[in-house]
Design brief:
The protein has four domains: about 5-170, Hypothetical protein af1432; about 185-380, P-loop containing nucleotide triphosphate hydrolases (Rossmann fold, 3-Layer(aba) Sandwich), CATH 3.40.50.300; about 420-615, no CATH class; about 620-745, no CATH class. It contains 26 helices and 28 strands. A hairpin with a 3-residue loop joins β11 and β12 (about 455). α7 packs across α10 (about 145-150). The two termini are about 50 Å apart.
């Protein structure tokens, strides 16, 4: 028996867990053999060699480090891989595959005992462990098995590893660089087959370097205030001719060589050139990265050859994997999935349409992977059953919704009631005429609340905003009671005469809403309030207020403030939500000013729960400062790729960039680039969820543009990737480019 024979007998799910351990690198100080899979092979074969009759030690060797990938991380202080408490995850796998362990003639309980304690018996740990903790381990009847295991659980050396690999017959040879510490994955398959999902699931604990042209297209489209689809527009045949000017896309000109259409728009060509420049730079920046994923269709051998240019000149350093997503026989399903995705994007104000004929071209261009292409491994992925199930469920849901909708419509028409769907369409028309709301708000029937004289658009976004502001006792403000239905409260208010109706606003201030919640503003003398803790409100006004611990007072008053959209066909006023909160406009007889910055002078302050972190020192800031010190010790500056940047001031610009991002990241020190006046304001904004991907991207660009200003001919682009934990910045001036990656430490 050997590792190879044990692996071949393993269930398919266990095989995948075992082979995936190559992704979990190890500290070379303790494991010179490299990744975890290599270590498992070595230790397992040692077990068969040194203890040929001990099934428990053999199976413990096979399972002992299988929890490393799921606990894999990087120590921020040392920069080395860690897998703390991996033995617990390994024990979970022993429980899961106990029947397999029994089939091999081992006792799962004994195997668990060995794996549970294999880290404790390491000399560094065992030497300082208290006797009271050692005794239960030593007194266990299987302690001798643990001792035996400790003699083989050591880092492997290169020669021994090669010998073991040869004996195992597994293609993981260091000389061939197969499944070493670097790999490139070329994804092969049309859109909508699950490539993005595969990346997330495969690289759960590892940050791959992803090359994806679509992401760049989206970024460039945003710069032009276009959608994805706009970058693929051509002049209308037999209608537009050379020299014509399109208001959006520019002048009609002859298409460049290789285009499928004779004419193009100059702005579209310009935008696509930017896409290609950024894409080329992205490919260049990928050289030397440990895990590269080329996330495009790559349907032909020529396209895959282009994908491998990311490792050109270093091919022998990489394990080359083609990941092929099955689509044969499921072409119609893929088209439907893409159409469904397109509809979802349109609902979000985006547009990415892949016409059926484009899919047909991709399908016909597909070429099977051949040995001549140079891939070391071909992985097949089949998501078709999942997609069929998803489409079936979606179809059933649509049928149910249609049946219910038709019956509901019939009943409403019989009763002479105006349909919510019709009302929402009317409201959407009003929104589309509103320059402020157009493209930002979508009216759906479920968001419409109808009263006697008013119809309110109360969207999920508004609901979430009010819930976040008025359901968390740790934050300043009045609180709605837990479990209260905010839409029911709003509907009740709509049937009460408004307090004010002027300047495009309709307000209900301090009206009776029943037992809705608690008032969050309290009264004290201005002198007392002056001594309380300062707090900056997270809204656009950034008013300075005072906060103090205390109990909010129950209130039956509630206030609703809305914006007028216009008048509907039924004569009712259409309104959109501004805000709603418990309480009125007076506290202990004192009028509450609209400007919260005046609260303190009136003796008003906000009550927060005594346990609120807002009353304590900013722990986040302290932790951030400590992390900065560690990063400073480790920092070697930004990894700036000069690409083809040939301007004479490269070193000067490089120095300025490193001074701007001294820890290789953007953090709360860069508050001014987010438009805040202090680090505290930025931290508060992060806490309230106001800093999203777009703001981070803009901040990076703003900072970089102080060194590379637009007036000097520079163009700065920033893209976030890997869950917004990293960013990539590219700087272009004519034919000169440079770029760098940056960590997002917010």
């Amino acid at each position: 028996m050997s590792f190879k024979s044990l692996y071949q007998q393993s269930p398919s799910e266990l095989k995948k867990i075992v082979i995936d351990q190559w992704k979990a690198k190890q500290n070379p100080k303790y494991h010179p053999e490299g990744n975890t899979l290599k270590h498992i092979i070595i230790v397992t074969d040692r077990a068969f060699r040194d203890f040929p009759d001990n099934k428990n030690v053999q199976l413990a060797a096979y399972f002992h480090d299988l929890g490393k990938l799921s606990t894999y991380d990087i120590n921020p202080k040392t920069g080395q891989p860690t897998s703390y408490y991996h033995e617990k995850e390994s024990v979970n796998l022993i429980n899961k595959f106990d029947s397999f362990i029994k089939q091999q003639g081992a006792d799962p309980e004994i195997v668990k005992y060995i794996v549970q304690n294999h880290m404790k018996i390491k000399p560094d740990t065992w030497g300082i462990m208290k006797t009271s903790k050692k005794d239960p381990i030593i007194n266990d009847p299987n302690y001798q098995n643990l001792e035996k295991f400790s003699t083989i659980d050591k880092g492997g050396i290169s020669e021994e590893f090669k010998r073991m690999q040869k004996l195992a017959g597994i293609k993981l040879n260091e000389d061939e660089k197969v499944k070493a510490n670097k790999a490139i994955y070329v994804l092969v398959g049309p859109p909508a087959v699950g490539k993005s999902t595969w990346i997330k699931q495969t690289f759960d604990k590892i940050q791959p370097f992803v090359i994806n042209r679509d992401d760049i297209v989206e970024k460039v489209a945003k710069q032009y205030n276009w959608t994805y689809d706009d970058l693929f527009q051509f002049p209308i045949k037999d209608v537009e001719k050379e020299g014509d000017i399109h208001k959006k896309y520019g002048t009609v000109i002859k298409s460049p060589a290789g285009s499928r259409e004779p004419l193009s728009y100059d702005k579209v060509i310009e935008a696509n050139k930017k896409v290609q420049d950024i894409f080329n730079q992205r490919v260049t920046q990928g050289k030397g990265k440990e895990n590269i994923v080329v996330d495009m269709t790559n349907m032909s051998a020529g396209a895959r050859k282009g994908a491998l240019k990311a490792i050109e000149g270093a091919e022998d350093e990489y394990h080359k994997v083609a990941v092929v997503f099955n689509f044969k026989g499921a072409e119609d399903i893929i088209k439907k999935m893409a159409a469904k995705r397109s509809e979802e994007m349109k609902a979000q104000g985006k547009s990415k349409t892949i016409p059926p004929e484009a899919f047909d071209r991709m399908f016909s261009n597909f070429q099977q992977i051949s040995s001549e292409e140079g891939f070391d491994e071909v992985v097949q992925v089949d998501n078709m059953e999942k997609f069929k199930q998803s489409l079936t469920e979606n179809k059933i849901n649509k049928m149910i919704k249609q049946i219910l909708s038709e019956e509901f419509s019939r009943m409403q028409k019989l009763a002479g009631i105006k349909l919510n769907e019709d009302v929402s369409q009317e409201i959407q028309t009003l929104i589309d005429k509103n320059d402020f709301l157009k493209g930002k708000v979508t009216a759906t029937p479920s968001d419409v609340i109808e009263g006697d004289k008013f119809v309110l658009l109360f969207s999920e976004k508004s609901l979430k905003h009010i819930a976040e502001r008025h359901l968390d006792g740790n934050k300043p403000g009045s609180l709605f009671k837990s479990g209260v239905n905010l839409r029911d409260v709003a509907k009740k208010i709509l049937n009460i005469s408004p307090s004010e109706q002027a300047s495009g606003k309709v307000k209900w201030l301090g009206v009776n809403g029943g037992e809705v919640g608690e008032m969050g503003v309290a009264k004290a003398s201005p002198e007392e309030v002056a001594k309380m803790k300062d707090y900056t409100m997270p809204d656009k006004g950034k008013e300075q207020v005072k906060i103090a611990p205390g109990e909010r007072k129950p209130t039956s008053e509630v206030s609703l403030i809305t914006f007028e959209l216009g008048t509907l066909e039924n004569g009712k006023k259409a309104l959109s939500m501004n805000t709603m909160f418990p309480g009125g406009m007076k506290v202990d007889g004192v009028e509450i000013p609209m400007d919260r910055g005046q609260f303190a002078s009136k003796g008003l302050y906000f009550v927060v729960d005594p346990s609120s972190s807002l009353l304590k020192e900013n722990i986040l800031k302290i932790i951030n400062e400590v992390l900065k010190k560690y990063r400073k010790q480790l920092n070697e500056g930004l990894n700036i790729s000069n690409g083809n940047y040939e301007l004479p001031d490269f070193e000067e610009k490089k120095t300025a960039l490193n001074q701007m991002f001294p820890y290789g990241d953007i953090d709360t020190d860069h508050y001014q680039y987010f438009g805040y006046d202090s680090e505290k304001e930025l931290i508060d904004a992060i806490g309230f969820g106001e800093v999203d991907s777009s703001r981070i991207t803009n901040a990076i660009q703003n900072a970089t543009e102080t060194i590379f200003p637009e007036e000097e001919g520079f163009k700065v682009d920033a893209i976030l990737y890997y869950g917004d934990e990293k960013g990539n910045v590219s700087i272009i001036k004519g034919d000169d480019t440079l770029g760098f990656d940056i960590n997002i430490s917010l």
